[in-house]
Design brief:
- By secondary structure, the chain is an alpha+beta fold.
- The chain is 59% helix and 12% strand.
- A four-stranded mixed beta sheet has the order 1-4-2-3, with helices on both faces.
């Protein structure tokens, strides 16, 4: 399986979902970003380039930090959703810990090369 940090990020994502501190899907996340209710936008790596581009630019427009991380199937499974690749985290604490975890994983991966 993944590293300790990858498991930690996924388990926080699962906690956020169970605590109902997670919104999923394209339209819901767009709406919530426009309402300034999302603290972190998480996009699956395997989304189409077009969808990623649209969501990243919407996040930038709304001033929402955006991370591209993980496989859609894995993220969907951990959050109890099916076929979702777009996740919005409205909770400040979950957003912070998940964002920091992803940054740490991505910087560790860069060091490997």
């Amino acid at each position: 399986m993944g590293t300790k940090m990858e498991n930690k990020v996924l388990s926080y994502l699962g906690f956020a979902a169970r605590a109902r501190k997670l919104v999923t899907g394209y339209n819901t996340c767009l709406y919530m970003m426009e309402k300034k209710k999302i603290r972190l936008l998480l996009l699956a790596e395997d989304l189409s380039e077009n969808t990623k581009k649209k969501m990243v630019s919407a996040a930038q427009r709304c001033g929402v930090p955006c991370k591209i991380y993980g496989a859609g199937e894995q993220l969907s499974k951990i959050t109890g959703n099916v076929g979702k690749g777009i996740f919005g985290i409205p909770d400040e604490n979950f957003a912070k810990v998940i964002s920091e975890g992803i940054e740490q994983i991505q910087s560790e991966k860069k060091e490997e090369f």
